[in-house]
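2.7 Reproducibility. Because tokenized structures are sensitive to small changes in the input, we list the exact sequence used for site-specific DNA-methyltransferase (adenine-specific), including any N-terminal residues retained from the expression construct. No trimming or masking was applied before prediction.
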Amino acid sequence: MTNQKQTGSYYTPQYLASFISKRVLSHFENRTRMSILEPSVGDGAFISELAQEENININLTALDINKAELNTASEKWNKKTASFLETDFLVYSTAKQYSAVIGNPPYVKKNILTSKQIELSKEIHSNEDLTEASVKNIWTTFLVKSNTLLSKNGVLAFVLPSELLQVKFAEEIREYLKNEFQRIEIFTFNDLMFECKGQDTIVLFAYKKAEVKGEFFTNISSKESLEQNDFTLKNNSLLVESNVKWTHHFLTSDELTFIDKLKNKLKTVNDYSESKPGIVTGANKYFIIDKETENEFNLSKYTKPIIQKGLFVNGSVVFSDEDIKKLEKNNHPTKLLQLNDNDKISKKLREYLDIGELEDLPERHKCGIRKNWYVIPNISKKPDAFFFKRSHLYPKLLKNNSDALVTDSAYKVGMRNGYDLNSFIYSFYNTLTLLLSELDGRYYGGGVLELIPSEFKKLSIPYNVVSNKQFDNFTTNFENKSNIEQILSQNDLNILNPTLGINNEDLLKLTEIRNKLKRKRLRK
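Resulting structure tokens (single pass, no recycling of outputs):
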């Protein structure tokens, strides 16, 4: 699938366009005529499918801002009843109400939109009593505006990013959909349905009128399942009524109730600790250097040790100065260039700053707003611990026994009065907390798990006090583990039983739920 960052074009595979088109048309099978709007026609995948309909006379309106693509799409339409318009959907104005709006809207983040597009998006959302916070990506505005153009028994069918189901700004959009449509169908997928790295997608069908009302979900395991209509849509009202992300629609009401009951008995990460984002350099590849670059430009008096990303701290729960040395020995960037406004600029430092200016770093937003573009603000003391916001097999919380700082790939963690860091880290590594990380976090194409600050802070922790000797044993076991499941099997009852009274049967249930969540994220 072609990805064009500026236009947000993610072109739809033909089999998916075929499935969506046929499902929409089947809703109108008793009609002889209908009107369809495609607000961002792209390469015309949906046009090809709709053109094959013989029983319903379709009056088509197709829009796109790209004239060449619009012309290509128009060549796929073999009927007279169509209008192909070169325009931005955000400015499109009509009194017409459509039987269906269908397509794959662009995915463009707010910071890439023009000022005019941002203002139009705000206006469209405001007219539907939605806040400005929901204007984060242009697909949300396409969704909202498309709804306003539907007839009273219309159908909306869109290919959308999985953000709709799981990110904070989309909560308001989900509520909007629930209020505007009697029936919602969500199709999620085991595999990326598009050949596009990192973009996880879903399909949404929303019906203004329906005999069987509610929110229905299904997960598609293969392309063949779609083509053969081999799937079952299931209602999950408890999920929809709660704050659980819709990506977890495959959890049962019993499982959701069980989890909720346990986590509500516990305090959270935020009760025990304070956490803040790590250092924002504005250009990690420039400001975080390796030993060779440090020596070449005589920068050692200006550098401090730093961990650039979570990939560099695999396998342990304690990070030491020895670990920094190992990273340095393997030629990883471990040196943060920390300059001050009153530093005297040496000849060699000037040479390095010239490189940054040739790369236009002073023009970057985060560098440009500084008094001197090369002086990184808010570099505080080294953190006591750090939690890396992105992870793969399991989240990573580490004690910092080194002098290293950390980038904003992690949250700096310090304990509140009365609580012990060793006990906090030990208590974090249990099946319930790791399960909640899967449940409260979000994931994207490739299966990377991410927890934003608010999601990390609200994680429930069954806090148990341990001695230094117990923590040392835990650290040794952690470093020698074959996988995280080994640690969980050793620690779960010791951590969860004293705080929650969990027995082996409950623990097995928690483990099965966590594995189900993890398999879905990793597409196993």
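Residues 1-8 have pLDDT under 50 and may be disordered.
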